[in-house]
């Protein structure tokens, strides 16, 4: 129990010597009564630059109503957010992963500076979600994260569509399978309102992971962004955070090795984004918990794929919500014996109790039963080998390929690879290699969805493989290896690959190799002339100097 709910804020607000602080706040509407209550920081990632976070301003109002009703005083503040989908395939995409650190830093700074007693963080698009949780882990004050929810699917030609269909439509257009008018009609219908991307892409993967981790309230994540119930969920979060404060449920009690393993298992079982690896490694680092890239492989390989979700499956997040939401996923993990049941959640329940209370819609087939798995293993694996000594992540959901051997087609940046796809110069069997797109080389580790979706759209998704020291969108599907580490500018073997070299993927052996002798790899790496850094100063230059390997979560601390 917390005996003093204002142990932080009273330092900055109480006593004659703090009159100037109170004067400032009284001038903008906070009275004596408000300033004598626990102060709850509402960290908002609202922005008008994307649908994912567009609605968070009004959602924050509901959170604040709940805080006031429970006896606290909310103080809302904002931070940055970058849309992965809008910046995809451009120089702007380099800012996306970097924004994760800026989001965490800015929430931490405001919360420490103003000495909030508790924090509620609102997230939407991809990097805002781990950024919020990284900040909560650093601060270790009572708090929780509320995900803004998923967008509803659009309707086009009588079927549900998502932004994934638009990316793949670009490739189909280049191949002559979609006219200009048809592509425009598709883009007019694919994104019908506010909310994050609808498939089990990065946003929904991370939202699910953090609910399973326990830092988001149970049952909150999959309530769609524009569902009338989302406001009630937000208000309840405001009420809940005062209970969390009273019970002193700090993130350090919730983010443990075992709860992180629960989150990994959920990501694997749902066929989620490979960005899960980067972001959970980063959260573990901030929480001071030992987590290794091999933990992801171990857990994913013993966890079957049960969720039939896009990009590899049929359904989207709104379907999962109707089926039973994240609690149903937690129940399946318990049925598999893959759940650490005693882990605490922010609501005060154990995760095992959440599993027991989960409800399942009659006849749903979004989340399969253990005896009807889509695949015996989870949606990703970690490979090593002479191309990835520190490891890389290969996506396995949405296809059945576990090995590939083919000639390399090497590109020094994403734009060059995309131009080659558009020019139809990539052939079946090729292995597309994109380097200098890692955390340092980019800088910022861009996602390659523009390329991978175009390959699928041109009909090459089942015959071409791709590897990169960059990363992939959660909407990517196909035989793709990302996060290849070390990256090219750090002397990684990916720098040795030349056009025509034979590259071999072997998932069963967990290997990614180029058919070259070690001496030849070393000779080529020594002679490799990496492109000059594009950014020497500013936030991108600073990030390039500070960032660590993708194998460590691309952290900067």
Radius of gyration: 23 Å
Proportion in β-strands: 5-15%
Spans of at least 5 consecutive residues whose pLDDT stays below 50 are: none
- Structure classification: alpha/beta
Average per-residue pLDDT, rounded, comes to 96
Instruction: Count every beta strand, where a strand is a DSSP E run of 2 or more residues.
Output: 14
Salient structural properties:
four-stranded parallel sheet, eight-stranded mixed sheet, globular, 557 residues, 22 helices, single chain, alpha/beta
Could you describe the 3D structure shown?
There is one protein chain. 40% of the residues lie in helices and 13% in strands. Helix 8 (163-174) packs across helix 20 and helix 17 crosses helix 18 (351-357). It has helices spanning 9-13, 19-26, 32-35, 56-69, 84-87, 94-114, 128-139, 163-174, 180-189, 202-213, 229-247, 251-254, 257-269, 275-287, 293-301, 317-323, 325-336, 351-357, 414-422, 449-457, 518-527, 538-546; strands at residues 39-44, 73-78, 118-123, 143-147, 154-156, 159-161, 380-383, 391-395, 403-411, 431-434, 465-468, 479-485, 502-506, 511-514. The protein contains 22 helices and 14 strands. The chain has an 8-stranded mixed sheet with strand order 7-8-12-11-10-9-13-14. A 4-stranded parallel sheet has the order 2-1-3-4, sandwiched between helices. Strands 5-6 form a two-stranded antiparallel sheet. The chain is of the alpha/beta class and 557 residues long. The mean pLDDT is 96.
